[in-house]
Amino acid sequence: MAEVTEKPQSQDIIAPGYTFGTVTDQIATVVLTKKTPVFWFAGITVGLVLLFFFLWSVVLLLGKGVGIWGIRVPVMWGFAITNFVWWIGIGHAGTLISAILLLLNQQWRNSINRFAEAMTLFAVACAGMFPLLHLGRPWLFYWLFPYPNTMNVQPQFRSPLVWDVFAVSTYATVSALFWFVGLMPDLATLRDRAQNRFARFAYGLLAMGWRGSARHWSVYETATLLLAGLATPLVLSVHTVVSFDFTIAIVPGWHSTFFPPYFVAGAIYSGFAMVLALAIPLRKVYGLEGLITDKHLDNCGKVMLATGLIVAYSYILETFTAWYSGNVFEEAAIWHRMTGPYAAAYWSLLTCNIVAPNFLWFKRVRSSPVLLFLSSIVVLIGMWLERFVIIVSSLAQDFLPSSWGLFHATRWDWATYLGTIGLFLFLFFLFIRLLPMISIFEVRTLLPQAKVEEEVGK
Amino acid sequence: MNKPIYGLMAEFDNPTALVNAARAVRERGFRKIDAYSPFPIEELSEALHLHKNKLPLIVLIGGICGGFTGYLLQYYVTVFHFPLNIGGRPLHSWPSYIVITFELTILFAALSAVLGLLALCGLPMPYHPAFNVPRFALASRNRFFLCIESTDPLFDHDRTIEMLEALGPREVSEVAH
Predict the structure, then answer these.
(1) Structural domains in chain B, sorted by start
(2) Which positions in chain A touch B86 (Cβ < 8 Å)?
(3) Residue A456 counted as domain residue
(4) Which tens digits make up the pLDDT trace of B50-81?
(5) What is the C-alpha separation between A297 and A289, in angstroms, rounded?
């Protein structure tokens, strides 16, 4: 019976020759060593410099208001919402890897899920900044939540913007919980291996007394499965709700029913691009090619190709629907995108998102980390442009030509955007220095020694 | 020797040995046993008969509570507390409640999954006698441990050591309280 239900497992998920001990040591040493690689200092410095851009622009924004950005009537969403959608989308790959691939029993996920989940958390943190700052008075953000108040007003629950608050805050909470539950056994490993007293105390506190008891593991496995089962519909719902921010409005170019699947596919597309953009340099610098193998990169490349094709199909469908609807405003919206003031952005996004992923059909491209890295950067740029074009071009030219107006990004738009990239890098580099970037216990289960050899007849 | 101990712990090299030992000890009638491993082993849960736990029920209840909270919150606010007449549409506009009801269902279910996990495992637990065994630090690396607690009715210090030694462990040690 056991043979029938088990998936045939390809041998090259992890390089041969590893033992429980060496796997543990290799991953834990990155954290527990006293020597920090130069790469890490370089990375966190870049992150910190950009983070100061962010802090600077936020201080200015709090002092002067959102007018420091280029948002002017009619384009009131500009970079802020573009960046929000882009960052949230990037986060989705982490949940896909940790939850959906877990349910599908894809064991190759085990060596990339940890840092992909961390990426999710930090991307959601960056994403969350934009709607908050865009509020105008960010210090009143708690008005978004229904709480008994002396003003006697409540949020409008029929508004997709309020749904978004609930969806994104639930997503952030559940991702953080899932991540922490996954970390517990590895924190116990760090606690048991740390030499430094403070490190032992800190990891011990976080591990909460985890001791690998079989009773605990059995509950733990149930919990992981349940959380994965909950996170799967959640992640699909989050970008669906984000797309509702657009589709529920009647602006031409936004008001269409295929936005939810289109947005979810785009989210996973850009997220896998980010996973590759992080994994390829990391495994090189830390010598983790035996754990994050070419097989992983190849699989990520395939997921990127598949979601890229869905996104390409959506672009075609978007254009087709506009024409087939016979609606002058829809037709005009697409026509403006193709030939209007944002035509350059539109055609570049098509090049980045449709032409570039097709190189991933070739095994030679997928097996070359350098080419994969470059294609992931191209996809990240393309997806950012896609969000920008959808938001800005539709708002700039809607129904009445008399109310048209173009968006011009200011330097503070760019500073805030680059600043959140800095925030992301800063948090990510802290994470790889302080926590194991690969799930140690899940990699142990991938080793051939982890299989229990049953005695026949027992 | 005279001081009461928590139990006896045997250390094994690989998961197969641990599963076989756990099975053997359970067949002898011991019930107060626990096994420790650096990763989850399905066969071990079977050997120790650990298949059922209450977590799915806790999560189900949490999810249902979350769903009701979400729906009733919106119903109360939009119909009674802060009614807004928009284009004469019904105040009880249930289709627009779906998203938040769904999100709160997931949120409550996930919170109860994590809190339930901690509660069922008795965590956080800063102290446990198992940590008194110096080699137990390897339970989170590459060693597998089986512990028989002294509160088991069949526990007898010398005979239990003998039995554990017969299972071919690397080492058998006492676990102090």
Answers:
(1) 5-52+126-176 (3.30.70), 55-121 (no CATH)
(2) 158
(3) no
(4) 878 899 999 999 999 999 999 999 999 999 99
(5) 10
Half-sphere exposure (Cβ direction) of A14: Cα atoms closer than 13 Å: 24
Express each pLDDT in A150-208 by its tens digit: 988 889 898 899 999 999 999 999 999 999 999 999 999 999 888 888 988 999 999 99
Task: Report yes or no: B79 at the A interface, CB cutoff 8 Å.
Answer: no
Q: How confident is the model at residue A3 (pLDDT cuts 50, 70, 90)?
A: very low
Size of interface A-B (CB pairs under 8 A): 198
- Give the SS3 label for residue B146: strand
Report ipTM for this prediction: 0.91
Domain of residue A101: give its range.
35-145+154-450
Overall domain count for chain A: 1
Q: Is residue A5 part of a domain?
A: no
CATH of the domain at A207: 1.20.1630.10
Query: Would you call B78 and A441 a contact, using CB atoms and an 8 Å cutoff?
Result: no
Distances in Å between the Cα of A201 and the Cα atoms of A29, A69, A81, A197, A209 are: 17, 45, 42, 6, 11
Which pLDDT does position A457 carry in this prediction?
43
Contact of B75 with chain A, judged by CB distance below 8 Å, is answered with no
Q: Do A452 and B16 touch (CB under 8 A)?
A: yes
Closest alpha carbon to A220 in B127, B40, B164, B52: B40
Predicted pLDDT of residue A11: 52
